[in-house]
Amino acid sequence: MKLPPDSGRGAWEWALVQAASATARIRRLLTWKNITALLILATAGALAVSWLGLVSIAASSGHFAITRWFLGWTMENAVETQSMLAKMPKTIDLDDPTLVQRAAGHFATGCAGCHGAPGIPQSPVVNAMTPSPPRLEGKVAQWDNAELFWIVKYGLKYTGMPAWPAQDRDDEVWAQVAFLRALPAMAPEEYADIALGGGSGLAEVDLEAGGLGAASLNGIVEEALVDCARCHGLDGLGRGAGKAESAFPVIAGQPEAYLHATLLAFAQGRRDSGFMEPPATRYEADVLRRLARHYGKRPAITVS
Predict the structure, then answer these.
(1) Could you tell me what percent of the chain has a pLDDT over 90?
(2) What is the pLDDT of residue 2?
(3) Rounded to whole angstroms, how far apart are CA atoms 82 and 153?
(4) What is the mean pLDDT of the chain?
(5) Which residue among 53, 152, 167, 196 sits deepest, i.e. has the most Cβ atoms within 10 Å of its Cβ?
(6) Cα–Cα dist 234/291, whole Å
């Protein structure tokens, strides 16, 4: 290799010759054959690593910081873009207490188990997930209404965040968004009242009148009745007071056969509701029948 001239025009000519020579060498390397060979080798290497089971899939190992950042960045961009078509109906008011009350029970049974709730910490089991579900009180403000709607309705792959069980019930999804908007300012006492049934116990209602006296109760039926009471009340008159008093329909005094058929329709997926399908599916047909009997025998309010 010749040494470059000390200075002047000769040095520039030498530099140009060397650059041209390097470019020619690169071109010889970057032929289609070489590129194809490199791609085949890279693909084969990746398949070999996967086949040998060398990829770390353990939740306990977490993600590298760069991986965590990239996945979060990709998710945020995807939600921002794909939520552009989500439009809140003009009839929806996210400050409406009725919507907040309507979605509270579902949050308690479908969301709080992972995300926690006011006065309720997250489980160490949940915190051992990768990625671990965040507490939502400090997160909902990071998303606009359309983005929250999109996340609640469609869920997030590879995170454990499910889609809404009834994809054609946007009204329920907007109610859940209303609850999430109210969540950051919600005190534990308020949450317990609207989401957990207000702490009311079975002893506060005459169960004999509903055919569910102490002798007929077992643990499953009692659990199911408390589950129903989160929204419908133990008396079947619907929970909610003031502006939220119309959050739930009155089911007390409805025909037992109708109530039983309705619960079965939710349980068997013949009637869509993200609020009603999960609790109805949790219990066997006999339990649903006993719930229908209880609420069917409850006295309905008579308007004079």
Answers:
(1) 66
(2) 55
(3) 12
(4) 87
(5) 152
(6) 10
Whether residue 234 contacts residue 206, with contact meaning beta carbons closer than 8 Å, is answered with no
165: tokens are 């069980």
**pLDDT per residue over 131-152, tens digit each?**
999 999 999 999 999 999 999 9
Question: Which CATH architecture describes the domain 65-86+94-194?
Answer: Orthogonal Bundle (1.10)
Residues of the chain with CATH 1.10.760.10: 200-297
- For every residue of 266-303, DSSP letters joined together read HHTTSS--TTTHHHHHTS-HHHHHHHHHHHHHSPPPPP
Mean pLDDT of 218-232: 87
Q: What would the DSSP string read from start to end of 162-194?
A: PPPS-TT-HHHHHHHHHHHHHGGG--HHHHHHH
| Distance (Å, whole) CA 166 – CA 266 | 11
Calculate ∠ Cα 222-224-225, nearest 5°: 65
* Secondary structure of residue 102 in the 3-state scheme: helix
193, pLDDT greater than 60: yes
The DSSP call for residue 142 is G
User: Would you say the pTM of this structure is higher than 0.85?
Assistant: no
pLDDT category at 228 given cuts 50, 70, 90 is very high
Residues present in the chain in total:
304
